[in-house]
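re: ur msg from earlier - yeah i can do the pyridoxal-5'-phosphate complex, just paste it... oh wait u already did. ok heres what im feeding in:
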Amino acid sequence: MTSLEDLPIRDDLRGKSPYGAPQKHVRIELNVNENTHPIPEPVARDIIESLARAILTINRYPDREFSQLRDGLADYLGHGLTRDNIWAANGSNEILQQIMQAFGGPGRSILGFPPTYSMHSIIASGTGTAWVSAERDADFEISPCTAVAAIREHDPDIVIFCSPNNPTGTPLSLETIEAAYDATDKIVIVDEAYAEFAPAGAPSALTLLPGRPRLIVSRTMSKAFAFAGARLGYLAADPAIADALRLVRLPYHLSSLTQAAAVAALQHSAEMLAMVDDIARERDRIVDRLTELGYHPWPTWSNFVLFGGVENPSEVFETLLEQGIIIRDLGIPGHLRVSAGTHAETTAFLEAMAALS
Ligand SMILES: *Cc1c(COP(=O)(O)O)cnc(C)c1O
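and the outut:
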């Protein structure tokens, strides 16, 4: 039997672990921050019609420039953005991979601030980009000074922020992003996968794009749009950024079916996003109730809650799993993370937690 160790794999991949969120199908799945609300039926029907039309020309390659989709995404984002500012791929993970292929790679580095989204460093290793990490301030925050000091120390080719941050939920101020941008002449990425869950009126890094051609804001339809299975991530940036990514993307990387489904879903963005307020209310209920139970949930602007004060995280994780409830143990001492679910799912999780204490 051959094992991975026996293969002539790249030296820099030896001993690495793949992305490993357990994919267990249980009664209540609150472990990977999916939107647990299914998409509304009338929208689903429209998407199916759009797919049915696309399948009739599936003998042809898809629109390599996915122009209609970029128009839909630009409309959705607003902020005066047009098709030329938008690029898309199969999930924002692929967006980040293309950015690292174009701007990172062997001999180059990317700076991030753990604890943060584990895929950032995994994509770095896949693209041969050195991952450099810097410390956050207290309470998982990153002040402008802290960001600038880390950039001065490491001189990275790419700086990546996650706002709000996964797995902590922590928002990031625009001042920090501006200061980081001014401290480097390289690429700055803001991963805004959870932007739609932020409080109304909270400013997005999209507002910083004018006059900042090295700033990239990445977004996804996986979370707020309840579209995780469709795989559609995108970015907004200066049009020159898309030109750079055209050099590394595979031709026709976005299938006709993906494009058709996403275009149809974007035409219903209001209905698709109708659950966001609901989810934010469930998230707040988790924060309140866990606090009452004596845990320490961190402030969160996303659809999940990281909470401390857990004496034995792996034991709590297993006890919940035995009851058909899966949450996430990220290996942060004393902490667990839970995604906000439907009202019933959230109630089941909170009741299980109450029974523990
Ligand atoms: C879930 C998540 C993504 C989304 O990845 P997709 O590939 O678009 O599904 C991106 N960034 C962060 C921080 C996430 O938590």
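cool cool. The pocket of pyridoxal-5'-phosphate is lined by residues 33, 91-93, 117, 162, 166, 191, 193, 220, 222-223, 228, 233 (CB under 6 Å). ping me if u need the other ligands too
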